[in-house]
Amino acid sequence: MGLAEIDQQCWLAEAITPAELARKRRLLRDQREQVLRRVPGSEAIEAAVVGAIARVLEQRGQMVDAAAEGLEAAALWVADDLCLLAADPAGHRLVSACLCSPSYWRLGDKIGKPMDGIHGPVRGLNQAIGSNVQHFLDKLPLGRIFQRRNWLIHQSDDPYHPHDEAWPPTLRASDCQSLFVRSETQTLRKFAGGAVLFTIRVRSHPLAQISDYPQAAADMLIGMDRMSDDERRAFGYHHHGEALRAFLLNLTARSA
């Protein structure tokens, strides 16, 4: 799963920019049903978690409305997307979320489902890590925070990507100059009652910039080589993998 513990001071530490705040507000206004969902009956859990987020931010000197309720309010305080998982006999379920930066998934398809239902569409994922994820959530200590990072390739730097992209039938290494690397920093934190907050911070950079960072290109190649067949399908390797691999190999060869 690639999780590592982080200090609380690193949690939700990136300030939301005026541009990102405006983007979130625009999505909440124009596509509210697509980016904001709550399972009825989860209001109390949500309010407790939002209150805890407010206290963390206030301790850092950030001004927030401590009386505000709902993940919508909290999502406008921070740069991250927020997804709330409630403990359930069937496994932790996604009961509330403000998701303004999805990558190839739709909140309406996941809300209310347990972890195995959330991961179900990614072939092989439940078999590979399903029991590990639920075991980790069950044993996650209160207050401690764990983080992981992943990356994907997109054709634009728009953070809102709920649907698959239309890729050209043939992609060449030279075409990769116009693509974008999307990285996601994800954290997990458990609160009283067993609820777990899953946060997602998205950043996008032009792939062309990696020419200045040959070690990063080499690391990306290593990551691609270690992917299973199912991970390659989820990554979209059949769309861009061979072209991306050739592009990265060319960069690493030039820097050798």
Summary, kept brief:
This protein is of the alpha+beta class and 256 residues long. Helices cover 39% and strands 20% of the residues.
Describe, in plain words, how this protein is organized in 3D:
By secondary structure, this protein is of the alpha+beta class. The chain contains 10 helices and 7 strands. It has one domain. The protein is 39% helix and 20% strand. It has a 7-stranded antiparallel beta sheet. The protein is globular. α8 packs across α10. A hairpin with a 6-residue loop joins β3 and β4.
Question: Topology, pairings included?
Answer:
Blueprint: E1 4-6, H1 18-30, H2 32-35, E2 36-38, H3 43-59, H4 71-75, E3 81-86, E4 93-98, H5 107-110, H6 115-119, H7 125-139, E5 145-154, E6 180-190, E7 196-206, H8 214-225, H9 229-235, H10 237-255
Antiparallel strand pairs: 1-5, 2-4, 3-4, 3-7, 5-6, 6-7
Helix pairs in contact: 8-10
- The termini sit apart by 31 Å
Number of domains: 1
What general outline do the C-alpha atoms trace?
globular
Sketch the topology as an H/E string, one letter per element: EHHEHHEEHHHEEEHHH
Unreliably modeled segments: 120-130
Q: Quickly count the helices.
A: 10
- Beta-strand content: 15-25%
Count of individual beta strands:
7
> Major beta sheet, specifics?
7 strands, antiparallel
- In order across it, which strands form the biggest sheet? 1-5-6-7-3-4-2
Summed over residues and divided by their number, the pLDDT gives a mean of 89
